[in-house]
Amino acid sequence: SSESLSSEGGSSLPGDTSTADSSSRSDSGSEVACDITLIERIIRSHPIWFLPGIQRAGAFHLLQGKEEGNFVVRQSSQSDTMALSVRLPPGKGPYIEHYLIQANKGKLSLETSDNRFDNIPSLIAHYAQC
Question: Measured between alpha carbons, how far is 55 from 65 in angstroms, rounded to an integer?
Fold first, then answer.
């Protein structure tokens, strides 16, 4: 699946204009091109979406009022495992889905995917692409 992901909170990914960041606007108030890559934006915004201290119920609570594509990475209830919780579009089953992030031979993947990544930001960047 290739859901469009955006970070939960003040940082956003391409296509989401909800953040009024003065550094991304010209003096006239119009949008200007972003000078950093998607992966760099994900890495810089990790304090917003990387929340290892919350559990599934906390992730659900954080995401329930957010727009589709918002997500958090959190500790799974399974030991030594992280989970990705994502706000899905309305009408696509449960509107918040939880995916285990599995580690195998030094690579990461979602439980339902054959795609392998070196780190969590790379995994998120892959699924964040429209």
Answer: 17
Whole-angstrom Cα distance, residue 31 to residue 20?
10
Tokens of 74: 């959190």
Share of the chain above pLDDT 70, in %: 72
Residue 66 included in any domain: yes
Assign residue 106 the CATH number of its domain: 3.30.505.10
This prediction's pTM: 0.70
Q: Which domain does 74 fall in, by range?
A: 34-128
Chain CA centroid to CA 72, Å: 6
- Report the side by side order of strands in the sheet with 6-7: 6-7, 70-75, 82-87, 96-104, 107-110
- Specify the number of domains making up the chain: 1
Distance CA 60, CA 68 (A): 13
Helix and strand tally (H, E) in the chain? 4, 5
